[in-house]
UniProtKB/TrEMBL annotation:
InterPro entries for this protein: G_crystallin-like, Glyco_hydro_beta-prop_sf, Ricin_B-like_lectins, Ricin_B_lectin
Keyword Ubl conjugation (UniProt): no
PROSITE patterns per record: RICIN_B_LECTIN
Domain Ricin B lectin: 448-586
Keyword line: Signal
Protein name, per record: Endoglucanase
A Pfam family this chain is assigned to: RicinB_lectin_2
Leader peptide range in chain numbering: 1-29
Domain of life: Bacteria
Protein species of origin: Microbacterium testaceum (strain StLB037)
Amino acid sequence: MKRRSRIAAVVSAAAVAVALAVPASGAAAATQFLTYIKPAPIVGSLSTTAWGAATVGPRDQSNGLEDKTLANWVYWDGGIIKGADGKYHMFASRWPESEGHEAWRYDSYAVSAVSDNLYGPYTDQGLMWPDVDGGHGHNVTPVQLKDGTYAVTISGFSDARVFTSPSLNGPWTAQGQVQVASGPYSSTFNTGGNFRTILGPDGKYHAIVNGFQTAVADNVVGPYTVQNPPLFSSITGSPTDDMEDPLIWYSGGQYHVIFNSWSAKKAYHYTSTDGATNWTLQPGVAYDANVDFTTYTDGTKNHWAKLERPSMYIENGVPTAMTFAVVDVEKNQENGNDGHGSKVIVVPFDGASLNAPALTLPTVYADTDRAGANAALGIGTYTIAQLQAKGIGNDAISSVAVPPGYKVVAYADDNLSGTPWTFTSTNLDLRQTGNNDQISSIRITLDTTAQFEVSSKSSNRAIDIGSASTADGAEALQWEYRATPNQQWSFADAGNGAVKIVNRNSGKVLEVSGASTANGAQIVQSTDAGRASQQWTLTSSGDGALTITNRGSGKVLDVTGASTANGAKIIQWPGTGSANQRWEITKVG
């Protein structure tokens, strides 16, 4: 039966042969959240004279919400909802610039701002509830309610409170404090600790606070039933220090949470299918204020001292942009009337890719729209007999799914002969391209032009060349992925089913130091000389990850001591199948 329906395509490119045995299915290799954040369009122009520290770099003052002269205000928070009028409504907090950053604690006001463009500039519309507590409010967060009206929650210097309005333009009516039902976990659920709530697909309001506790309610004000104790210590691999600013949203069939560690200046991404249980830390970082984080479409980068209070803008179920509250210097250095301040920035986000069904391997299907009998195919070649052994008949393929980093070349005849068809993205209906039910053999390759993150299955840390060295003999280590060139690799064909693994930063290849065959020999980078110690084969480890074996020694890439720490050395060791010898390869560029 040939069916048709609409689903998201997964796009890729490809090219290099390596022998790889494949499981029929496997867990998807996760992509770190950071890679979905994209360069921002330049709305106005890049200014070199804008307020702030020179370390920020040339920036677009028309992006987001700011006082361009710092004559009056600094801004924080910044969630966005698009109105029926086609305008973008941002909800933020502000306080007098002259009072310095710490004035948020006692003199922060809730305001709305409007723009015709998602990325700005946003025009401050003034206080949202001037007659209630003088308009004060902090940790300002908007949410659309079940009936199509709106609410804004505030917290930070008091227990969370709720204001509602039939319109994004107000007027806003105070509904009182958020209510929490008595229960086994309620005593630690502090609504004053960065309270946020969203309307879930189940029609309930799902809230989160610092400490990673979630709660649900039928009404935005509550009472909320707390679903769990503080979770950080129970989530495998999760940081625990100074975690705050939780962001929660639902997309792609699961709940997502981001927490920011204010002291480490890094944020982390967690997911759960029900928003209450089985929260899982995803690989890498969500964002990192220690590096040049914000990029414009012309390649210019900005480096803000702090990235906090993230929010996600979602349109038609697809996360489309993020906002961040940013400050140009450390908070205790922003003292008022000193040329330093804070604002809200807006950056594009590739939510379609985040939402897309994860694919570990190219997969062929007997029906259109990725339906019917199917087989996941790893790097290598497949004859009629080999496809039949996987449950795919001759001339019986009607759709092909291709994850990032792969290329599928299909042939009309057996043994890679006859008319070839190349797939560098998912094709849901081969009838549209004239090759439905005509494929007899297939070659799967990697993209030699692409760059990949290679991360340990046990630690979720990436292979890195220490100190971004370009020298021969520089050691390979594992490190938290930060999207730097010394952590990115390409795969070049070395012949006979092997590859060379080439560092993007140095152009040099991974090698066993001294061409050693000893257990524990260090992996280094070196100039390509065609040695067997510089060549590797990739085989499936059966869980969506790969084992990487050196051609010269027959031993595999290994994180020494199964360490999960930054800086742990990459060595070779006899294969045992342990997690520190399994690697996830994710296309990053």
